[in-house]
Design a protein that fits this description.
This protein is mainly β. The protein has a single domain, classed as Single-stranded right-handed beta-helix, Pectin lyase-like (Pectate Lyase C-like, 3 Solenoid), CATH 2.160.20.10. It has 2 helices and 19 strands. It has helices spanning 2-18, 35-41, and strands at residues 25-28, 47-50, 53-55, 71-74, 81-84, 92-94, 103-105, 108-110, 121-124, 129-131, 134-136, 144-147, 152-154, 157-159, 164-169, 174-176, 179-181, 186-191, 196-197. Strands 1-2-4-7-10-13-16-19 form an 8-stranded parallel β-sheet, with helices on one face. It has a 6-stranded parallel β-sheet with strand order 3-5-8-11-14-17, with no helix packed on it. A 5-stranded parallel β-sheet has the order 6-9-12-15-18, with no helix packed on it. The longest helix has 17 residues, at 2-18. The radius of gyration is 20 Å and the shape is globular.
């Protein structure tokens, strides 16, 4: 009887030890009022769910993953969840070695602005995944700017941006199932880069 009890205890301990931990779900704005505030408290594996609405101002623009392998995802897709730079700020800034497990999904990023690089999203030494997003009406700076980076873009629309759609320098982005159109400057510019476009 004692042996059986000990075996059961060991069995359940082993199950607990080898069961993978699931990340937390953090809700914006219900739990944290801004996207950056939610990112700041998150840890690898977490998902940040952003409710419908237009997000602007401090904490909702220039959002920085700080190297975390997290997912920032809208609840109902890019038609319903907008990050508005108000012609003053970009949407996201990746520069801390983020990989493909750092994910943005389901946003419209519009009215972005950068006097130097990437008015919509800037990637430097990073390779996150951008899924089902619309990058549009970026007033200054390319919609997406990749420097020494290999981000993955899937099912995205990059259109109607003043300077251009995507700029790649020493980068190897993977661009799949995307629409690049109506950009006033260049659609995709590649300098010493090896993109995969499908």
């Amino acid at each position: 009887m004692k042996i059986g009890t000990i075996s059961v205890v060991i069995f359940f301990c082993l199950i607990h030890f080898f069961t993978p931990a699931f990340g937390a779900v953090i809700n914006v704005p219900a739990e944290y009022t801004t996207i950056q505030a939610a990112i700041d408290v998150s840890v690898d594996g977490d998902t940040i769910l952003v409710a419908d609405g237009t997000y602007e101002g401090a904490g909702n623009v220039n959002s920085d993953f700080a190297g975390k392998a997290i997912t920032v995802k809208s609840v109902n897709g890019p038609a319903n969840c907008i990050i508005d730079g108000k012609n003053q700020n970009r949407g996201f800034y990746f520069h801390s070695g983020e990989g493909n497990n750092s994910v943005i999904s389901g946003f419209t990023i519009k009215n972005g602005f950068s006097p130097s690089k990437g008015g919509g999203i800037l990637f430097i030494n990073s390779s996150p995944s951008i899924i089902n997003c619309i990058i549009t009406e970026i007033s200054f700076g390319y919609g997406l700017f990749c420097e020494n980076s290999s981000p993955s873009l899937n099912n995205c629309v990059v259109r109607n941006n003043i300077e251009g759609g995507i700029y790649c320098e020493n980068s190897s982005p993977v661009i799949m199932n995307c629409t690049i159109s109506e950009n006033a400057g260049i659609g995709i510019c590649c300098k010493t880069s090896s993109p995969i476009i499908s």
